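Entry for MGD complex. Fields follow.
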Amino acid sequence: MTALSRRRFLKLSAGVLAGMGAVGSGARSLAKNVRETTVAGTRQVATFCDICFWKCGAIATVKDGQLWKIEGNPLDPLSRGRLCPRGSGGIGAHFDSDRLRSPLIRVSERGEDKWQAVTWDEALEYIAVRMKKIAAEHGPESVALFSHGIGGNFFKHTMKAFGSPNSAAPSFAQCRGPRDTGFELTFGDGIGSPERTDIENTRCLVLLGSHLGENMHNTQVQEFATAISRGATLIVADPRVSVAAGKAQHYLPIKPGTDLALLLAWMQTLVAEKLYDREYVEQHGHGFEEFCTAIAACSPEWAAAETGLSAESIRETAREMARHRPATLVHPGRRTNWYGDDAQRSRAIALLNALLGSWGRKGGFYTPAIMPVPDYPYPDYPEPKKSKVDNPKKKYPFAKDTITTGIREATITGQPYPIKGWIVYATNLLNALPNQAETIRAIQNLDLMVVVDVVPSEICGWADVVLPEATYLERFDDLHVGPFKHPFVGLRQPVVEAPHDQQPNWWIAKRLAEKLGLEAFYPWKDVEDYLRLRVQEAGLIYEELKSKGVITGEDEPLYFETGSPPEFDTPSGKIEFYSDQLAEAGFDPVPRYTPPSAGPAGSFRLLFGRAPTHTFSRTQTNPLLMQMMDENALWLNASAAAQLKLHSGDRVRLRNQDGLLSSSSIAVKATNRIRPDCVYLVHGFGHTAKGLRQAVGRGASAAQLVSRYTVDPLMGGTAVNVNFVTLEKES
Ligand SMILES: Nc1nc2c(c(=O)[nH]1)N[C@H]1C(S)=C(S)[C@@H](COP(=O)(O)OP(=O)(O)OC[C@H]3O[C@@H](n4cnc5c(=O)[nH]c(N)nc54)[C@H](O)[C@@H]3O)O[C@H]1N2
Ligand SMILES: Nc1nc2c(c(=O)[nH]1)N[C@H]1C(S)=C(S)[C@@H](COP(=O)(O)OP(=O)(O)OC[C@H]3O[C@@H](n4cnc5c(=O)[nH]c(N)nc54)[C@H](O)[C@@H]3O)O[C@H]1N2
Ligand code: SF4
Ligand SMILES: [Mo]
């Protein structure tokens, strides 16, 4: 915890405890919104969604013993009573006919789908014996955990108790790590999840990529609709006319990979025309003079040549941003592992916001608060003898989190020390990490490979042991306590029973710890003992949380003006326009643009994104979501299509710069809504695992084709928008 957030935490504790009476009595009237009793054969349970990691509060209804529907919980500050289409279709996860039904042990070569169903006891015994063997031969650090989402919490706990510091999630190096690094270097604090963006109050929203509306994070999309209906200006830079771009007053069809040039020119214009927030910059800025010198040559004319945009449109949009400051929000994005200069591009986004004075201001970035719920009082973990394996000699000096691909690298090379066991929880590493061949090469070096999943996904096919988990509708999970506009705690609880021999993560992680002789780390008997204690220690009532699903705390000041103190946890204690720590580490102290490298002649840059009805590669066997969208399409510029004699609906396969061919075909969507130098598809389709019967071979997979990636030198993020494809028509 940083000094700043620790102080906030303490302050909040006092505030929330003092406000407890109010929370309690307000709760009674609010609780009327949530029916908890049986009404004519129906039963409702408050929980939170897990179709993505936004974790919206939800109310599930069971009718005559059958799971019937799921809706938003009106008490929940994230969902505000409404779920996104994926959340509403979430009940399909329970009914999914492709689900794993019992623990499996592989009975052939790794990668061959030959399995034997075993009991939980046999499966966990098998794993524990091998984990102990690895620990005896190499040390406990040689077992690593990959996990994604809140369900990984108990596995992380078991790993720490076992003595391994190596736990990683793709949400850092494959997603928002570059962004948070860029903002931490500038403001001393990251963006986090949910993003601390005050979209509902913004008067000018600038989106670079960030395709809100397709990227369906619930609160953001609701606030986006509010901002538009209130007449906020929308500026969108995207090589493709995204849903958001379709609503923009200013659409900039930017050449892929040149956003940093655009950002520098916007900043140069604000400085040259003295349109920036001078008072804010004087009060909070560090190294502003050096910054101005560094960007002086980055005129709109210079950027026009790089970005393919007109100098006039760059100047006009810079002035538009200045007109609405400080309520101008240049959105920081989320999946920012694009081109390899991503932490620096994110730093430029942070600096542009600093010039506009939007950090800590209404309509810009608010100061999040967190409900003070203490951790469970576990015994101290053993001190690992070796440090984390992912980032030897601090090669990536500004990596604050564990780098998944760093663990993969160590598994291949054995350096700085060998990794011999992987436990993979709820992350399809073959689709999440770039370069599938490298992932498979790493797996082949392992003595133990365990996957915990709900369906037989691609990564299961490479496991020695597959453990079937109960879905989010069938289990308790850890408490949801996150930083947000309104502090709250959310509970996930079972709505219906798991249909077969599936178990929840807490049960698996606890049983595994017991098999490893680590029962002292699980002093609680049942997960509800754990949950109840934490909730009580926070001064809240567990039964109230169970009935309402969420308890909110007292709001804190959100903006500098309303009392949230401006504090910057940077070396200078200020907003770092010039970064001494970057200069000392040998990096550009002010972001500097380098043009993206071009692809082979005749190829298209491969771009991808989200569809409103799917999450990554994890929803393609959900029967309800597949009814809404059952394959992806390839966006191809209409003139480029004409040149290739391709029409909408023609099926093609994609071949990338390294000769890899997509294993299934995809329908062409010829359109003027994308630049001619790139193609676009929704990530997550084109499954190859035979057990995913509803998904296999539907559409094409982008993940198969990202064999090339560029590593961000600041923090180890793996940039994937650097692959190129040609199209081969199917006869
Ligand atoms: N429905 C749904 N919503 C989701 C998710 C999901 O799986 N499904 N996943 C969630 C998660 S974890 C994340 S990280 C986010 C990801 O969502 P975003 O952070 O919005 O994702 P990006 O990949 O950054 O954005 C893709 C967009 O960037 C554009 N783009 C590509 N290259 C460039 C470029 O060089 N410059 C510019 N300016 N634009 C470019 C693409 O055309 C596309 O419109 O979505 C979240 N929301
Ligand atoms: N090519 C490419 N790669 C990407 C991205 C991209 O857009 N394109 N996006 C990147 C981003 S932003 C992110 S955040 C990551 C996402 O990376 P991941 O989170 O790994 O995403 P998925 O590929 O959907 O894999 C999720 C796995 O969890 C399983 N699962 C679902 N529900 C449960 C459950 O309740 N319990 C258990 N145990 N398992 C469950 C699913 O079956 C699936 O195998 O991917 C990153 N990688
Ligand atoms: S944004 Fe949608 S899928 Fe994600 S948690 Fe909320 S309702 Fe569920
Ligand atoms: Mo992500």
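NOTE: The CA atoms of residues 188 and 570 lie 5 Å apart.
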